[in-house]
Amino acid sequence: MGCRPRSCYVSMLGLPNRRVRSSWSLENPVFLSAFALVSLSLTTPAHAGAVASSFKAERRLGANTWNAQSAIDGKPETCWQLPGESSNKGEWIILDVPKSTLDRIGMIVGWAKDEEHFKDYARVKSVQIEAMAYDENNELQPVGTATATFEDKMEYQSVDIDDIQIGDDLFGGKVKITITDVYPGRDYPNLAVSEIRLELAEFDAAPVVEAVSSEEDGHGMDLLVDDNERTFWVGDVEGAALTLKVAGFSVSRIGINPGPKEYARPKKLRVTAHSRSHELELPDAPGVAWVEIPATVGFTGSGYQGSEFEPLEVEILEVYPGTRFPDKVAIREIDAKATAFEGF
Ligand SMILES: [Ca+2]
Ligand SMILES: [Ca+2]
Questions:
Q1: What is the rounded CA–CA span in Å between residue 197 and residue 237?
Q2: How far is the CA of 77 from the centre of ligand 2 (A)?
């Protein structure tokens, strides 16, 4: 009773709702021209990677094994590694980043394959960070700088820096990270870095709920995004899933505000973006729980750059039991945070 198939759409257009319009004024002519430009480039991925000043040559495992890409692949066991003859200091990595604000820099400062490898190679102690832009001669020049110092430990570290604006009104920019000091390696002089991630400032970006696995009468999917915590969606626990879209935005996190205790609440989720999935567990607590979308090309938000055609799938794999309706799951609100706007 009251259940509909997942193909029922709230909005075929998938346009973000009012919260987006309040932060991105459509009256602003600069914004409108940016909008027109980025709309033309939808088919080409604008931001796709990293370039390093140098990296260790490798024949057996593949020429690019130690290249910069290995520092932005989300894998602690792979690293950007400098050649043995490098003096480390002054070497750099440059990342492509959309128009945004750099808030923090995150790093696994050594080769975190295991403790041995971590200690054997040199690790990053400090860096200089520069936002770069092309001048009138088409040469890259620094337009904003900051520095960061890291501790000598194997876990991921996130360091707050002086905010840097990246890109101008129309385009994204590049961020150059230069090694200024290292912790010496036990066995090898050259630096190895497992992960570098630019943590960009976040803003609210309202998702569109395109489809749900099922919904109860009076508790439809529109109540997930009505900005009202007292209203909530209810669906069958069996096969519960939501299809979201956040067109034009680089989404860094989604927020799940669970329903009342009478209903089951999401416990274990599988989030899929661009056919990459990850599973995570939510706390059994009222209020919004934020779910990270893993970064894929070196900056937060790069794991889901939404377009009209790219849904974000959220499957509810396990629930916390409801006191009255154990086979029905409820969610009050779905929110999203984004780090950049790249056009529809
Ligand atoms: Ca890596
Ligand atoms: Ca609601």
A1: 36
A2: 42
